[in-house]
Signal transduction histidine kinase (Modestobacter marinus), 357 residues
Amino acid sequence: MTVPGGAAQLTDDEVDAAVVDTFLADATAAAPRLAADPGRVAQLRSRGLAVLRVTHARVRGLPPAAAPTGQPDVGAARARSGLHPVESLRAASLLFQRALPALVAHHRDDTFPGGRSAAEQVALVLHQVIDELVIPASVTYVDVLLARISDANRDERRRVARDLHDHTSHGIGAAMQGIDLALHLHATGQPLDVDRLRTTRQLLLETLNDVRGLATRLRDVVGDRSLVQALQEYLDFTAPVGLEVTLTEDGEEGALLPDHVKEESYLIVREAIRNSFLHGRRATRLDVVVRVADAQLQATVVDDGAGFDPAAVDVTRSVGLASIRERAEGLGGGVALDAGPGGVRVVLTVPLPRATA
């Protein structure tokens, strides 16, 4: 960008256009997901120009100008589309870096209160204006995520209630019938039906396992354990008899995962495992792999069942897939789904701080 050298002789609009053009060209590398969509690029241009216009006015001490609002729900829109705030912060930092030298050169002959230099005044005002733009968007982004968490918790409670009604209550009811029959036979002097008693005992055992599985799901705490240890406990309690299950760890033992990453990743992987147990028709094996390497956590859940059509899933009855994706986006990561035929593969990817990995 050649603006700084002759910025003082250019109009505000000419300086702003040159700065924003350079900013958008560099944003492709600094914030690729933000700059990949033409609509977002147009939004970046509009908001960048607005920031610069407000900065010019405040630097000159003109009547107070409000920071651009344009689209007050930009944070919410980016949250809904899976864009992490780090992309916006990178773009804001880049705009500051590209605009500062051009604006300092453009305002170098202006006079500022308190004997400030052009560099001091422009840097202070530009930082303030960008802050006023970024902070509200961050708040609305967090609001959307909090609403999603609330919805996920509500849906989980509803699902637990359905499981208690459809499975646990049914098992207890059937067992009670078996016990009532045994008591009736005993009271009338008839021989006990031993086979029926064995069936009743099996029903009670299966119901007990269901309750243990629910208790494990409701606890939702990894705590001091590793992610793999928590998943192993869940598998030990819930894996169906006859299904071959493997859990492989690669690199987590030497990494110190942040607590929120462990907790949310556990919920995501657990949901993928649960979906396989419930819906993996004709599956004979389930493989779970947790890998930490190259500043990234990757967890893979694969079964060899019949697969399914994601478009045919009734979202009013199943919130699992939506919950998985939303929790992954909350971590700044993503989920890839391959639904077969020939099995289902779910791959969670979460970026990690370099010091963690």
In short: The mean pLDDT is 81. Strands lie at 244-250, 285-293, 296-303, 334-338, 344-351.
